[in-house]
Amino acid sequence: MTTQKLQVKKNKDNGKAFEQILFEAADKLRKNIDAAEYKHVVLGLIFLKFISDAFEELHQKLHSGTNRYEGGNPEDPDEYLAENVFFVPINARWSFLHSNSKQPNIGTLIDEAMIAIEKLNKSLKGILPVVYAHEKLDKAALGSLIDLIANIDIGSEAAKSKDLLGKVYEYFLGQFASSEGKKGGQFYTPKSVVRLMVEMIEPYKGRVYDPCCGSAGMFVMSEKFILEHSGNINDLSIYGQESNQTTYKLSRMNLVIRGIDGSQIKWNSEGSFLNDAHPTLKADYILANPPFNQSDYGQELMQNDPRWIYGVPPAGNANFAWMQHMIYHLAPNGIMVTVLSNGSLSSQSGNEGLIRQKIVEANLLDCIVALPPQMFYNTGIPACLWFISRKRTANLDRKRGNEVLFINASNNGILENRTFRVFNDDDIRNIADTYHYWRNNSSEYKDQKGFCKSASIDEIKSHEYILTPGRYVGNEDEINDGISFEEKISKLTAKLSYQMEESVRLDIEIKSQLAKIGISL
Q1: What is the percent of the chain where pLDDT is above 70?
Q2: 178/172 Cα distance (integer angstroms)
Q3: Dist CA 452 CA 412 (whole Å)
Q4: What does the pLDDT read at residue 187?
């Protein structure tokens, strides 16, 4: 099945995109393997196909020796390094693996291929999965998966120009996160939430940081934002940290396929609190989705930590530890956005209320957005976005000192399926525009009852520094349908009376039917 055939098939599959068709086919081969493990098998193979396609295309040009490739050696790794293409040794090339896909040792051959590629490409060292020889992985299914992936072109220049691999990889990450449920949320933040965060803080130029970067979705979306707004991707440098090694590998592969430098994405098992990989970093933009209400994060080892500027966070909940870690790493003119559980807006336990108060009084809080339910794979806990800015005063681009914008987006979004809600383009545009108009003190900004309100610090103080948007924006005015209260009550009581009479009738009928078979109530 070539890429062209996949496109033709789309018209016969109820308009499904080829990445969806490919995922459904790949998932059928999963058999008894958990999605958490299978994602590394599939995404690793897709990555291998990508770098092999790019290699083979350049290899052919060097072999033909035409134009600027005249005199080039197709087996010289330096020739590929000069073109920013990974060198793939013979035993790791897709053609070799595909020709051996039905062999019983195919898993071992793929693992050996991954190891060989890492040895010859320093930037890939330690990030490729070596999981294919595992005994629980059905080798016949693995061979079929290789055959399936072999039929799509994802690494050639033509495929790169259409971002085919990016679409496939992004779709697969989302689907695996959905399949894994709560565990999936540890490596993946839903695309529409990330898009909203990026559109609101507009990371055009500077250092972007995520202290719990998962599969690097924040960085990928920042790059897309730059390209969509005719910026220069080289104006961004990214810094991140991840404590889960397998998730770290996903993040590095996710960046490599998009040509983003991931050298400053670091892994250690202790994580950002106990072993900060970027201790001196001051970032211009911070985007993060830390674990909700994380407990046992090592607070007892950090009592006098310089990051706790606004108070020592409680041992049983890391929400304000993450918050203060990010504020500590924020540049003098930086802006950040983080996802937190709604409890962070009102909790008074363990010093949280006082920390929240000090952050507000420090004039750092820019905006709070209440998110709809069912937005995250890993939790049903209601969530919100906190925007912290150091650019709120003086002659910088924030002109809203001593004010905070509250947005209640809890009624926005559409159900993608029965359990998961997403923002559509209109939702994202409306929320982002509202923030931008407010931030720039534009005449286009207006408080909207039930949706947005610009509140003063004094007003927040009167609410005891509780930041739940509903307290400030209020409820939408009810639309007058022209029917009087008396008329509505009359109709409702008549309906209730009928239903009560019907209930009595049904009780009698049930008893009668049961009596016929000798059951008495």
Answers
A1: 89
A2: 10
A3: 13
A4: 60
Which whole number is the average pLDDT over 2-13?
40
Indicate the residue type of 297: Y
Residue labelled with tokens 């049983």? 316
Report the alpha-carbon distance of residue 117 to residue 124 in Å, rounded: 8
- 131, 246 Cβ separation under 8 angstroms: no
Nearest C-alpha neighbor of 414 from the set 465, 471, 375, 472: 375
Strands 265-267 and 236-242, how do they pair?
parallel
- Stretch 378-405: mean pLDDT: 78
Q: What is the pLDDT of residues 126-139, one digit of tens each?
A: 899 999 998 888 89
Give the tokens for residue 283: 């970032």
Mean pLDDT, residues 430-448: 94
- Helical ranges in 151-301 per DSSP H: 157-161, 164-180, 191-201, 217-228, 245-256, 271-274
Residue 117, C-beta contacts closer than 8 angstroms, at least 6 positions apart: 48, 51, 86, 88, 89, 92, 124, 128
Q: How many CB atoms lie within 10 A of CB 313?
A: 26
Q: How far apart, in whole angstroms, are the C-alpha atoms of residue 146 and residue 97?
A: 8
Whole-number Å distance between alpha carbons of 431 and 437: 10
Which DSSP helix (H) or strand (E) runs through 462?
Answer: helix 457-462
Reference 146, options 246, 29, 59; nearest CA is: 29
SS3 57: helix
Q: Which of 252, 262, 314, 322 is nearest to 292 (CA)?
A: 322
pLDDT winner (highest mean) among 23-37, 76-90, 140-154, 177-191: 76-90
* Location of structure tokens 């250092």: 207
- Residue 468: CB atoms within 10 A of its CB come to 16
Whole-number Å distance between alpha carbons of 329 and 284: 9
Q: What DSSP character marks residue 60?
A: H
Closest CA to 85 of 64, 63, 55, 57: 55
**Residue at 507: amino acid letter:** D
